[in-house]
Amino acid sequence: MIRRPRRLRVNSITRDLVRETRLDMKSLVYPLFIVEGEKIKNEIKSMPGVYHFSIDMLDGEIEDIIKHGIQNIMIFGVTHDKDACASSGFAEDGIVQRAVRKIKSLGKSLNVITDVCMCEYTDHGHCGILDETGYVDNDKSLAVLAKIALSHAQAGADMVAPSDMMDGRVGAIRKILDEHGFVNVGIMAYSAKFASNFYGPFRDAADSAPAFGDRKTYQMDPANFREAMLECAYDIEEGADMVMVKPALSYLDVIKGARERFDVPIVAYNVSGEYSMIKFAISQGLLNEEVMYEAVMSIKRAGADIIITYFAKDLAKYIGRY
Ligand code: PBG
């Protein structure tokens, strides 16, 4: 007897019926880059279809985001106001704090997540405080990261997402949030964040490239799976509500491993380089645009519950149609 798996592929209704994995707009997070200035909506050269927005332009953009069915956004601040210890990162009138207040004032049902890091605010571009030798001092950085997270919560963020990779930062952030009564502000921890070259376009967009050296003393070695599991376990122990694997497409095994081992939601960050490679290939006519759907689907199939992706708006068209 011939086995006939093609029987379940005969038409689109049957294919829809037997589909094992589905993408859902409700589990996507759309990143937004906010800049100083007015009337700015500038396309980011290294990331076609992604824009820098000034705060006054957010009304229209938030409207558009909601129209696409997106319910979660992640805010990144871009500023020229930089110093050695990232003071503009925790200023009450900092770029992220103002953006969050503005978005929240619109009264939409939108979950606002903020990236908590120092690299956008330090003049040296590293994700923590440097010691005399140029090494990122872990424990000195914790206090600053905690202050940044608290200032985001005070501005109205629903959830904070530390992306610095310092040891102990989740615990430090949980503690300061709780002490100030923000018990319901969640922590989405960038737990298994690899020292990846796929962040290249983002660093252009966020003006956050390190002025010297690289991030290998704090972000993870791309070769290490087991260490990634340890990072997730430590973050959960410290109070992370969800853990993240980043990047996503070259790390699907790590996503799968985290999904199998841990019972918190697993987040995957489909990063800028992964986005831009595909976008440029599509614009060259080399690939059909449906590859976006296929790429993000692979992240979901690997086990990600939540996907942060610059493709979110593009995918709205496919989700529902597929
Ligand atoms: C900040 C941060 C980075 C990204 C998210 N938060 C860059 C980095 O670690 O250098 C990368 C996101 C992307 O590439 O899309 N630390």
From TrEMBL:
Residues that, per the record, bind Mg(2+): E231
Binding-site residues, 5-aminolevulinate 1: R203, R215
EC number(s) from the headed UniProt entry: 4.2.1.24
Gene Ontology biological process terms, A to Z: protoporphyrinogen IX biosynthetic process
Assembly and interaction partners: Homooctamer.
Family: Belongs to the ALAD family.
Protein name, per record: Delta-aminolevulinic acid dehydratase
Organism placement in taxonomy: Bacteria, Bacillati, Bacillota, Clostridia, Peptostreptococcales
Gene transcribed to yield this protein: hemB
